[in-house]
Amino acid sequence: MPSLKNLRLRIKSVKNTRQITKTMKMVAAAKVRRARAAVESARPYAAKLGQILANIAANADTRGPLLLNGRAVVRTVRLVVFGSDRGLCGGLNSNLLKAAAKWVRAQEALGRTVQLVAVGRKIRDGLKSNFTSHLVSTHTDMGRSVEFAHAQTIAAECLQAFEAGVCDEVHLLSAELVSMLTQTPKHTQLVPFTLAAAAGEGASFTEFEPDEETVLADLLPRNLNLQVFSALLETQASEQAARMAAMDSATRNAGEMIKKLSVQYNRSRQAAITKELIEIISGAEAV
User: Fold this and answer.
1) Are domains 4-22+247-286 and 36-246 of this chain identical in fold?
2) What CATH superfamily is the domain 36-246?
3) Residues near 110 by Cβ (< 8 Å), separated by ≥ 6?
4) Were both Cys, which of 51, 121, 131, 256 would link to 197 (CB 3.0–4.6 Å)?
């Protein structure tokens, strides 16, 4: 049985830990509000740009540039996996790593070569453990806030690899903020552009100046930047939401542990006092 001194030290240590986790929860709660607002502001713009591109591509006389056409044969695919630079955010990074591993196995089963790009130190470390030979690039330590320049750097690297023939497709795997308690992996094909969005009404009557192919050649690279930026924002918001939930759970667990240790301490203290009283009474009777 631990001594009273050891129990006091353990209670003090757990109280200090609870104070830290409580503070981290409050900080994460403040950050997640800003991150969620940024995500909600970017979503409509990204969706509208995707719809515009789909409308233009669907009504173009030709299939457009390589970013829209893609290559006839896909031999090499690249997956950009987004995660966090810091830990203590629950199962966010582990879920993303599991989804990445599943995707890699599925692509290799098709006979394709897989390249991986890690965004975030935790994702980089996880991919190094299992897919060292697949890892071609990493992006870490981007700072406390997501900047559009970060997205431009990642998108430019992917575009350069695609145009040079280093890879035939580029995909994104990021976290999606479904709710404050739920964050799920989200897969998006970045290159070539997919006509996922339906053409809007009246799109066939739209005239473009210059022609559709020229507009596509200008907008498609911009869309890459926006899609990567959206993935960064979603992942950052998911990270803060997951950290807030994890720290809340840790704070509650610490409180329960303090209660149990306090009960154990009081019982041990009472037992020690009772033992001393018995010894005093026994000594008095002996006299």
Assistant:
1) no
2) ATP synthase, F1 complex, gamma subunit (3.40.1380.10)
3) none
4) 51
| Number of residues in the chain | 287
Domain boundaries, the chain: 4-22+247-286, 36-246
pLDDT (tens digit, 9 = 90+) per residue, 202-213?
A: 445 566 677 777
Query: Tens digits of per-residue pLDDT, 74-114?
Result: 999 999 999 999 989 989 999 999 999 999 999 999 999 99
What does pTM read for this prediction? 0.85
Per-residue pLDDT tens digits for 220-232 = 889 999 999 999 9
Nearest CA to 166 among 257, 268, 78? 78
Distance CA 21, CA 10 (A): 16
158 in catalytic set: no
Give the CATH H-level superfamily of domain 4-22+247-286. Answer: ATP synthase, gamma subunit, helix hairpin domain (1.10.287.80)
The active-site residue, picked from 32, 67, 89, 158, is 89
